[in-house]
Amino acid sequence: MITSAKPVISKIKPSAHKSVLLEAVLDGLMLKENDVVVDGTLGGCGHSLSICAKLGSDGVLIGLDQDSAVINRAKKAFEGVKPKVILHIANFRILDEVVRGEKITKVDKILLDLGFSSDQLDYSGRGLSFLRDEPLLMTLTDEVNQNRFTARDILNTWEEENIATIIKEYGEESFAKKIAKAIVKSRINKSIETTFDLVEIIKSATPSWYHHRKTHPATKTFQALRITVNDEIEALKEGLLNGFNVLAPNGRMAVISFHSLEDRLVKHFFRERVLLEQGKIITKKPIIPERLEIQENPRSRSAKLRIIEKTN
Ligand SMILES: C[S@@+](CC[C@H](N)C(=O)[O-])C[C@H]1O[C@@H](n2cnc3c(N)ncnc32)[C@H](O)[C@@H]1O
Hints:
Rossmann fold; 14% strand; single chain; DNA polymerase, domain 1; 13 helices
């Protein structure tokens, strides 16, 4: 039984992660030297380091990430920057609590760059990539213990119907029912333990043409499991609301999403703020990467950036 998943920090090379839509984020946030900025998804620190370069010594950057390995690496990355930098291992869903805990009453800018970084994909050892045979944890935090809910639990204990529902809803996978059926059939003989076990099951449940497309046949199922394990939809809803609540008047919030579920949620949240006369949408249409950025960083291809300004 898998009880822990300490990240293999020794294997971590200098960050290969490229920040997505960097210039658009910097322009859109309209940073001022003395701003208080919260980066709720620190990751490889790329956005935050560029933000720090725009802040002066009166500025503050609060960086959060739920992955302690990210925060440990970040401590070194910010050495010598001008603004005050405060780092926390925390989920952005409690962004407001973290800010108040620091005795800060209003934040000028917030950035959420959702999902996971390429470092996590490559080195976490938690089963985020279908290209490596790893334990099926799929947690974005490394604090995995006996009580923590993992993808392995879903695959080996959930009812077929519930597995089909999450794969359909969170993965938007058209073969959800077939995949769920194959999962439940497979676990009768042997529990499903690793990413490659799952990839084989997905392949057995889907037609061969589905295996030869640009997108790997396991992409949607992996996305669905990761979203469920990390409670990503609820975390985003709470993070948007709690973040907006601590924004100062004229403060801005920028959100980069990577799949339509997240983007729809952000779009509706922003529209609601406008209807409530609390906000003004800065990006009438989401900003997407130029072709060159997609060529240099294929991960950016599905990125959408939306920005809102608080009006009162
Ligand atoms: C796409 S990466 C961010 C990359 C970063 N902007 C950069 O330039 O390097 C997303 C990061 O957000 C973290 N993350 C995802 N959801 C989170 C949440 N709800 N709370 C805190 N951190 C989260 C992940 O652990 C990951 O490190």
